[in-house]
Design goal:
alpha+beta; five-stranded mixed β-sheet; Ald_Oxase/Xan_DH_a/b
Length: about 800
Amino acid sequence: MTATTERPGRPTARIEDPALLTGRGRFLDDLDPLPGTLTAAVVRSPHPHARIRGVRLTRARRHPGVAAVIGPDEVAATLRPFPLSLKTPMPYYPTGTDKVRFVGEPVAVVVAADRYLAEDAAELVEIDYEPLPPVVDAEQALLPDAPRLHEGADSNVATDRTFEFGDVDGHFATAHHVVKGKYTFPRYSSTPMECYAVVAHWQDEADGPGVQAWANFHGPFSMVPVLAGALGVPASRVRLMIPADNGGSFGIKAGIYPYVALMALASKHAGRPVRWTEDRIEHMLASSAGSDRVMWFEAAVSADGEVRALRADLVDNVGAYLRPPEPSTLYRCFGNITGAYTIDAVRIRSRAVVTNKTPTGLNRGFGGQQLYFGLERLMDKIAGVCGLDPVELRRRNLVGSDDFPYATPTGGVYDSGDYQRALDMLLKNADYQALREEQRAARERGEYYGIGVATIVDPSATNIGYVSLATPAEQRTAGRGKSGSTEHVRVSVDLNGIVSVLLGTVPQGQGHATVAQAVVAEQLGLPLDQVRPVVEMDTATTPWTVTSGSYSSRFAPLLTSALVEAGEKLAETVKVAGATLLDVPADQVELADGRVRVRDEPERSVLFRHAAGLVHWDPGALPEGTTARLYEEAAFTPPQSKAASRGDQINSSLCYGFVAELATVRIDAETRQLRLEKVVTVHDPGTILNPTLLEGQIHGALAHAIGGAMFEEMRYTDAGQPTATFMDYLCPTTAETRYALHSDHLETPSPLTRLGAKGCGEGSSMSLPAAIAGAVADALAPAGVDITTLPLHGNVLNELLNGSDSEREL
């Protein structure tokens, strides 16, 4: 399949915005899907690690207005542990059963007539805890004498795999330089405007139990069988409904499924539907977060600065449980672990470690933020060792424009790109030499001014087969591999010629409806107002697969390809109907301007709706053999997304975009305040489908990155107590995201998608933290300070600059 550079040349305004701006959004708290719904409150552990010696629910059950109270006994009696990605003896339930393993872990649920009664009764639940020693640091958790979280496991290591591709030792033996670095990436979250919300209804039917649930879940739908497994029902008996509007997710709402199971069980005991809406403190304590990672990198480097081989030792702190879809963060970027560079050989050790922190999951750019922070800081260190400018070091190692499709040693296949040209655009737009002159002048004045760069590959359209890499090849069951990047869509035409487009991607504000409307209108030659996109999800009626959902930048490459294919099928039927009315062969007509017209005689035409009406009202008039079908589904399944090979190689994403990014920072010598002054960014997202939405995605990713790089960190004390409010978890506001931005784009269409589009929603969330760290390190280089971790703010910088050891690394 070849790409086309044709695109929907339509207005760029988002069609989602009028309802949101006028208070007509349809969020879950706006909906009351079932009569008689009760409200739940969750009782949570105040301890990071403790044995549950007893739970007394009698007083809470007697409280006026209470319909049901459930605790560990009810959970263990009815629910099964969630199926894990690995056969690791670390069972995970939606509440603690034998122990609690993180502050905020659910222990009991109170269901009452309203939230006030439920929370009052929750205070009457009595729990007898036996506190146990906690461990929150991943390196400490690796030690043989560390507190054991799961007694059935041999250690706190949930998975430990080593991979090798190419002659790694040979390259290191002949290397002119061996450059090493240890880097740590912090745990931070997504903090969407809308927290978790669930309405669940347990239904006991003659043919067995089932669950109906409404949730602001964004997918991936690989969690549906996980949820069904815990409930002990077939996946077909779990019906999930997602409202049209979702107040943000950035990946975090994939972690809602334990609460769907928990509220379904509460509904079973209450005998009525149950609603639960998470408050902000609950979200901070116990929803999810991106994993914090410790990384050790070594590079074998030639005399002229070419990186020949890489060793990486990655340790992810996944929190108290290996909660599905973990250990995804370790493997999502497996195919692009060498980044944008021509590195021939790689050895990787990947470990996931459990600690007494909240379980981790998806967070915008998951896996990429961690990888690129370590890899890009290593590249800066290599530049210093080789005496090269950081830009020049990267230029010498970038994949060349003639090398595409480029195969990485780990199995990734980069589909298209021109990395050198994008880098040139970045330097020109930034006026790089002028910035270096400005830096020289600033240093002469005793000021701290730095410039940082990052060049990264932006993976999109994830191939879920990467999850199987956590299992050794010899233990994978033959014939039961995992692969795929499928997306489904359904398009239909009613008897008035109005086209409905049913999407399965579950957007969270990205503008999927706007793009879908434009793509289908372009395919069928219709005005925009004749196409009606539908983004509400109902797993009983909306087409979907286990890979469906809004994650890993899937919409642009996959869903739009499915839209094109469904539109082509519909177009053929409408052309036949129009040709019948015009009494010409179907191959002589085209769709344009809301009409079916003769290609060589455009004045001869019929309205699109009249042609559709013929199919609905008079199918007998159609030529023999023509189906009266104005309803098409398409499933775009790229053949390039294969299961992992027996040698553990995998093309972990279908498409690979590119980001070249530069940041400048200034540090006040007296106050130590860090100020991000300028960001220059160049993105290659393949074919640009909607410039406004692309810029919105870039701005959002930059803000997310600034949070993780300069402000946000889910800190835990050694005793396991976390930050829990915005008083001590600092999210950037408009005041903290004021900087000069120059955003530019380069289009190298993907040959693997129907419109040539790649994803673009995560790139800067992965690249800017590394660029900011590089800029701060550059600013502090005269003081002999290196930057090996995040976040960076005034307190950190003050400690660095005031430390007695000027060579100290953070």
